[in-house]
Every structure is written in C-alpha cells, then in structure tokens.
Amino acid sequence: MTEQVATDRFIQDLERVAQVRSEISVCLSKLAQTINQAELAGDSSSGKLSLERDIEDITIASKNLRQGVFRLLVLGDMKRGKSTFLNALIGENLLPSDVTLVPQC
Predict the structure, then answer these.
(1) Longest Cα separation, the chain
(2) Which 8-state DSSP code applies to residue 91?
(3) pLDDT in tens, 38-97
(4) C-alpha–C-alpha distance, residues 91 and 25, integer Å
(5) Alpha-carbon distances of 98 from 12, 77, 87, 93, rounded to whole Å
(6) Rounded CA gap, 70 and 84, in Å?
(7) How many CB atoms lie within 10 A of CB 32?
(8) Which of 13, 19, 32, 51 has its CA 20 to 30 A from that of 3?
(9) What is the reported pTM?
C-alpha cells in the first residue's frame, strides 16, 4: 500500500514538473518577444543593443522546454547516491550504482 501511495505521489510530482516546465516555456517565449520588440523600437530611436543572440538563446530554451528537452545537473560527494537517485528518477537502472549496506547493531 505504501508503494502505491509513493508511486501516485511521484506521478503527481512529475505532472506538476511538466506543467511548470510548460509555464516557464511560455514565459520565456513572451520574454523573447518583448526583447525583440524593444530591439526594433530602439533601432528607430536610440539604436539597437545587439541582443539578437540573447533572443535566439531564449527562444531555443523555450522550444526545448516545450519539447521536454532540458539539462539536469546533479552534484554531490563521491558514493553519496547520485547514480541511485538518477536511476530512481528515470525508473530504470541505466547508471551503475553500488549500494553499500550498513550493518545494523
């Protein structure tokens, strides 16, 4: 029964992550549009700020998030469960991990 509750919670969390990822993608897209409009307006008045590369980077990040492509960085000391954590997150044992059992007294 506890495993089912944990699985349900995990699925709900994943759905929430997908929802937030989508919301961030929309915000990034709007940000890119706003910067682009400011560039166009600045070009006719005081000059461009040369933010084309930034607009492109933000647009790519928005597209990648919308498609579910993103990078995840996991840091930690050696032998502290990073691979085990990622395997659990993925749901498969893709990364080598070494579970060390601690003797109980």
Answers:
(1) 77
(2) T
(3) 888 887 777 778 899 999 999 999 999 899 887 778 999 988 888 888 888 777 888 887
(4) 25
(5) 29, 14, 12, 11
(6) 20
(7) 20
(8) 19
(9) 0.60
